[in-house]
Amino acid sequence: MTENIGVLGKKSPQRTGVERVVNAPLPTVYGKFQAVGYLDHDRGDEQVALVYGDIGTDQVLTRLHSECLTGDAFGSQHCECGDQLAAALRAVAAEGAGVVVYLRGHEGRGIGLLAKLRAMALQAEGLDTVEANLALGLPVDARDYGVAAGILQDLGVESVRLMSNNPRKRDALQRHGIQVTEQVPLLIPPCESNITYLRTKRERLDHNLPHLDAVAHWS
């Protein structure tokens, strides 16, 4: 970001944190949301929170959804991301109020789209999702949730019921000052294409996925 030059040529402090830029109505197949757009001055990413109804401040039903182009837009069955996003939007609408924070810059657990595709290619050769990232010399999970906490704080949210199977999301939010009063499971029925990926998330990344125990017919 370019430096701001103030009066008499003095440099103004560079902005940090998240800035609310726009609030626009967004009718969807799930219901009528408000799309609240933000600029993350620390990373340069554009972010959006989809807000439904009068959310209040406490125990707000909330999803932090990491960007996943292949799952969210293309319907990939390599992961469950697209189905989770749809389920979260439906749940918020059914609740009558809630927030889905869509986190750009989180593609492939933070490694980026092309690196994620390279990791998927390695998984097709037999590595699991953790091994693939490490084989590429990349972190297993590079995501940061500070911007999500900043967005929730701007919306006036103090505590959430977090739709997630990932305890690291819960812990990260709490470190950033957002209380998590409940972790709400967001369990998607597995398919043959993603069962190995989901089992790896449970066994190596500590995701709470008890419904996988009932799946025995895929190796």
From TrEMBL:
Keywords (A to Z) from UniProt: GTP-binding, Hydrolase, Metal-binding, Nucleotide-binding, Riboflavin biosynthesis, Zinc
Sites where the protein binds Zn(2+): C68, C79, C81
Cofactor binding note: Binds 1 zinc ion per subunit.
Matches recorded under CDD domains: GTP_cyclohydro2
Cofactor(s) the record lists: Zn(2+)
Catalysis performed (reactions): GTP + 4 H2O = 2,5-diamino-6-hydroxy-4-(5-phosphoribosylamino)-pyrimidine + formate + 2 phosphate + 3 H(+)
Enzyme Commission number: 3.5.4.25
Pathway membership: Cofactor biosynthesis; riboflavin biosynthesis; 5-amino-6-(D-ribitylamino)uracil from GTP: step 1/4
Entry annotated with the keyword Signal: no
Superkingdom as given in the UniProt entry: Bacteria
Family indicated by similarity: Belongs to the GTP cyclohydrolase II family.
Name of the protein: GTP cyclohydrolase-2
Gene: ribA
